[in-house]
Amino acid sequence: MNKPVWLICGTVPEADFPLCIGTWRVEGDFLEPEDVRLCGGSSPAGAVPRVPVRRGTPALAASAILAAEALGAGKPSVLLVGDCGDSRGSTALYEFLTGWLDTPESSDLKGLTFHYLFPSVDGHNRILMALDARQAPRPMLIADAGFMYAAKMSGYAARWDIFTPDAGELAFLADEKAPHPFYTRGFLLAEGREAPELARLAHEHGDSARFLLVKGRRDLVVEQGRVVAQTEEPCLPYMEPIGGTGDLVTGLLSAYALGGRPEREACLAAAQAARFTGEAADPTPATAVAELMPFIREGIRRTHEKEQQHA
């Protein structure tokens, strides 16, 4: 297996799905293993099954793979394991990754994207310590979904480069007393506080990454607690009920970052490309996220055209 240059870490909701690392290809509505091995040894043929692209980490990975291909940015690798909520798969992934970061195979790593994992403060902190111990340059760190919870609860959120919260997750980051999103204080939303204020609060409390890509009716790029860019066009109400569109955005972000875009530019381009992808797909509320994947290349093309017009 080639040395990964970008690694997406996450889970699938299947208890017996094996812990594996490598590259995948997108075929229709599935991720098909391309150069994938079981962690801890070689993978016999058929040992790693294909994965349906419905939402969650498979949707993120599929969008990152297709976007990186469209950008000519190389190919991200995926560290994947099954976990149905009992934390066993996530615990195995944390343990493997902590050791793997100290091997030559990780020496060319430019970035890590963390997605749906059981939020373990211990697992999170062991990964940060493993990164600190490396001789190689520090990779860019992106966190979405449950891994943001672990980063906040650890007290080390500020060491991250990018978080990608939606409105509810942003409220959790802004509430310095909430140990979990379920316990976020109602006044944060009841008083009508807007996303820029919540982002500022999260930064002031040390519960934010350097950059936030806040996904919503308006997508905001926040740097050190201050909104520095935003996009809200095209406005696509039918995208809202489609499960996995946030995963699409984070996959696009990972691909742009893999391609060398600085954090601010990568965040804005990802948000814009997701909107253009949706517009090209012309979705309905019944559209599945996998049906958006064939339009990623067009979304990236339109984003490039818009950037050229504003250059």
Could you walk me through the main structural features you see in this protein, from its secondary elements to its overall organization?
- The protein is α/β, with parallel strands linked by helices.
- The protein has one domain: 3-Layer(aba) Sandwich (UDP-N-acetylmuramoyl-L-alanine:D-glutamate ligase).
- The chain has ten helices and eleven strands.
- The chain has helices spanning 56-71, 88-100, 121-133, 146-154, 167-174, 187-190, 195-204, 245-258, 263-281, 296-309, and strands at residues 6-12, 20-27, 30-38, 51-52, 77-82, 111-114, 140-143, 162-163, 211-214, 219-223, 226-231.
- The chain has an eleven-stranded mixed β-sheet with strand order 4-3-2-5-1-6-7-8-9-10-11, with helices on both faces.
- A hairpin with a 2-residue loop joins β10 and β11.
- α5 packs parallel to α7 (195-204).
- The termini are far apart.
Question: What layout of secondary structure does this protein have?
Answer:
Layout: E1 6-12, E2 20-27, E3 30-38, E4 51-52, H1 56-71, E5 77-82, H2 88-100, E6 111-114, H3 121-133, E7 140-143, H4 146-154, E8 162-163, H5 167-174, H6 187-190, H7 195-204, E9 211-214, E10 219-223, E11 226-231, H8 245-258, H9 263-281, H10 296-309
Helix pairs in contact: 1-8, 2-3, 3-4, 5-7, 8-9, 9-10
Q: Averaging pLDDT over every residue, what do you get?
A: 91
Can you say what the CATH homologous superfamily is?
Answer: Ribokinase
Task: Return the CATH topology.
Answer: UDP-N-acetylmuramoyl-L-alanine:D-glutamate ligase
Let me know the number of strands. 11
**Which class of secondary structure composition applies to the elements?**
alpha/beta
* Helix proportion: 25-40%
The low-pLDDT segments are none
Run of helices and strands:
EEEEHEHEHEHEHHHEEEHHH
Calculate Rg over CA atoms: 18 Å
Please give the domain count.
Answer: 1
Tally of individual helices:
10
